[in-house]
Amino acid sequence: YKIPDAGLVILKVYDVLGNEVSLLINEQKQAGRYEVSFDASNLSSGVYIYKMSVNDFVSTRKMILMK
């Protein structure tokens, strides 16, 4: 992911029922490009939602986990 300005980055993963299944990031970051690893070994195959917020910006996307 890429953030244009420094700020608090929060990245969470939810199941389709809206239950939080993972908190991947919750920390201050400087502007720049980053990568995050996601250990999904305890999750079932299916559709998940990830939500990233940085300061006032919020982005929500779907992902498909296939095992």
Walkthrough of the structure:
The protein is an all-beta fold and 67 residues long. The chain has a single domain (2-65), classed as Macroglobulin (MG2) domain (Immunoglobulin-like). It is 0% helix and 61% strand. It is built from no helices and 6 strands. It has strands at residues 2-3, 7-15, 20-29, 32-33, 46-54, 57-65. The strands form 2 sheets. The chain has a 4-stranded antiparallel beta sheet, with no helix packed on it. The protein starts with a strand and ends with a strand. The mean pLDDT is 96.
CATH architecture assignment name: Sandwich
Rounded mean pLDDT score:
96
- The tally of beta strands, per DSSP, is 6
Q: How far is the N terminus from the C terminus? A: 24 Å
- Tertiary shape: elongated
Tell me the strand percentage band. Answer: over 45%
Q: Give the strand line-up of the largest sheet.
A: 3-2-5-6
How many helices does DSSP assign? 0
Structural class: mainly beta
| Share of residues in helices | under 10%
CATH class type: Mainly Beta
Q: How large, in whole angstroms, is the Cα Rg?
A: 12 Å
CATH superfamily: Macroglobulin (MG2) domain
Runs in which pLDDT lies below 50 for 5 or more consecutive residues are none
CATH fold title: Immunoglobulin-like
Itemize the secondary structure elements and their pairings:
Blueprint: E1 2-3, E2 7-15, E3 20-29, E4 32-33, E5 46-54, E6 57-65
Antiparallel strand pairs: 1-4, 2-3, 2-5, 5-6
Could you write a compact summary of the structure shown?
The protein has strands at residues 2-3, 7-15, 20-29, 32-33, 46-54, 57-65.
